[in-house]
Amino acid sequence: MSTVPGEVVNPDADGLVGGVTLWMSDSLPSAKYMFVEGALLTRTDYSLLFSRIGTRFNTGGEAATAFRLPNGKGKTFVGLDPANVSFDVIGETGGTQAATMPTHGHALSGAPGVGTLAVSPDPHSHTYNDQTFAAFAAAGAAVNTVNTLPTSNTGTTSLSITGAPSIGTLAAADVTGSGNNMPPYMVLRPIIKVL
């Protein structure tokens, strides 16, 4: 800052106090910057910065003479959106690195079916015998010879199912688990102009 008498002092001349920049170094560009990592500052030493960000990033327990920088470690930044309750307050945080699938269930829908049942060949025959009629004749019973069955008659019966078997629509029930919830990323180090 200039100390020339009568010259207007502009603390924002080389960058906006309170402005955050993504930085690609572990060294700060000057003493006018700090890392956005939650440092505790005094209100008198950084009065312009305090007038701009206030105590919105305090975490609790700070002295009345102090305020805290935001802590951006491991976080991404999103724009303020007053119409979205998740992004409607500057300094609001949320989200999680790991996504967890809540326990849930699914119902069976659709009409159960097993395709089309067919008998082959059709017509067909079965094996049987005439032992009952023979027993009646041996006992002296009168047998209607017109209706006498043959001794045996052998055929083949087979069953086939055509069409795709189906039990309706069913998905997994009571599934839980977690997985990575992050898009592709690159790690940088945000800095804030404090003086």
Distance between the termini: 10 Å
Mean pLDDT: 75
- The overall strand count is 9
Rg on CA atoms, Å: 43 Å
Assembly state of the chains shown? single chain
The main β sheet shows up as: 3 strands, antiparallel
Highlighted features:
mainly beta, elongated, single chain, 2 helices
Describe the structure.
This protein is mainly beta and 195 residues long. Among the domains are: 8-94 and 185-195, no CATH class; 122-155, no CATH class. The protein has helices at residues 47-53, 131-138, and strands at residues 20-23, 33-35, 40-42, 66-68, 98-101, 116-120, 158-162, 177-180, 189-193. The longest helix has 8 residues, at 131-138. The protein is elongated, with a radius of gyration of 43 Å.
Summary of the model, kept short:
It is built from two helices and nine strands. The protein has 195 residues and is mainly β. It has a three-stranded antiparallel sheet, with no helix packed on it. It has a two-stranded antiparallel sheet with strand order 3-4. The protein has a two-stranded antiparallel sheet with strand order 5-8.
